[in-house]
Amino acid sequence: MDFNKRLLLLILILVISCKTERNNIVLPKKTDTYQAVIDTFYTKNPTAIGIMVHIESPKNGISWSGSVGYSDAEKNTELSPTQPALIASNIKTYISATILRLQEQGKLSIEDSISKYLSQKTGALFISDGYDLDHIKIKHLLSHTSGIEDYANKAYLDWVDQHQKHRWTRDEQLQLTIKVGDPLGKPGAMFNYADANYLLCTEIIEQITGKNFYTSIRELLKYSALNFTNTWFPTLEEKPINTLEMVHQYWAKRNWDSHNLDISWDLYGGGGIATNTKELAQFTSHLFNGNIIENKAILKLLFTKIKTTDGKDSNYCLGLSEGEISGLKSYGHEGFWGTTVAYIPQLDTSISVFILDRDQKHLKKIILETLVKELSKKHLSVANVSLLKHLKIE
């Protein structure tokens, strides 16, 4: 029997069976499916403490948040899907977008040398260690190809572990960058992920705008217009009114609870923002759809890749990484505490995932892949619904 005949037979069987059972047909809600996904992973991995997810897919009519587990492992406080968390290095996309907004306003270019914009104090500090600031461009900072060494290494984490209440300053962390080691190479020679790159970007933002970097980020990224009411820099800004308490984020290996550490260890551009899964996914969706950076040519710069002279491809662009999820191209970033967000152009969908125990952060990728597979089925689901409507079975 050929394919067409088999398809016709299948439709006839469906019609006949539905004449007697049409009133029993219940199409599952997609949101039930998404919640079932995270529930299943949590049941198998309860040491994750909590799992939080948001799916933002405007063209598919989806804006859904879900959660399972606890926001406080000691008190067994039930986790709310709208609670904020520290997103750590996810901030780098925000910083990159802020820099490009300044380019959109004609106030800089990512091709500019950073020597034009750093404070005299910071410039002198890096020059003293042999950095040629005239040849390091802003795009080198955003792509981690500046040749700057990273202060946020194992020794740094060990020190933080022993001094959890220490109040860091950005200047202190930049000074530590110089103490850690000499320049790794010329700008564009290699990829070396370093939070110091983004600390320098926040100083550049301040030098240009004359405002605190966090205030400039808020204004340039249009928080008010886009209704981002749960996104802020804790300790640098007041917690927004009506925002829920931040979740506890854990690193079981070191017995860390984010509430016990002074946030300043990761605050000035390498990390720092607190937000919930919804606003992180919505920020990403708005960014890629041209609602933040409206100039298409400048928005396209986000995808800039620096071809390093060592010939290695890092898949890192300007404040985001290029990847693949379930066979589909994706762009996004991850954060230290087990956070991630990914935008899938083919689905025009952003998905954010928070795992509250860093030691279980591998679940992020698996959950993303599972959710993308579910979303990819939507075309089939729409076809099935259309068939049922055509047969007047609703």
List keywords for this structure.
394 residues; alpha+beta; Beta-lactamase; 7-stranded antiparallel β-sheet; two-stranded antiparallel sheet; 13 helices; 14% strand; globular; disordered C terminus
CATH class reads Alpha Beta
The helix fraction, in percent, is 25-40%
Described by strand count, sense and barrel closure, the largest sheet is: 7 strands, antiparallel
Q: In what range is the share of β-strand residues?
A: 5-15%
**What CATH architecture do you see?**
3-Layer(aba) Sandwich
Silhouette: globular
How many helices? The count is 13
CATH H-level name... which superfamily?
DD-peptidase/beta-lactamase superfamily
Strand order, main sheet: write it out: 3-2-1-11-10-9-8
Tally of discrete structural domains: 1
CATH topology-level fold name: Beta-lactamase
**Oligomeric state:** single chain
Radius of gyration: 24 Å
Number of strands: 11
Order of secondary-structure elements: HHEEEEHHHHHHHEEEHHEEEEHH
Q: Determine the structural class based on helices, strands and strand pairing.
A: alpha+beta
Give the N-terminus to C-terminus distance in angstroms: 30 Å
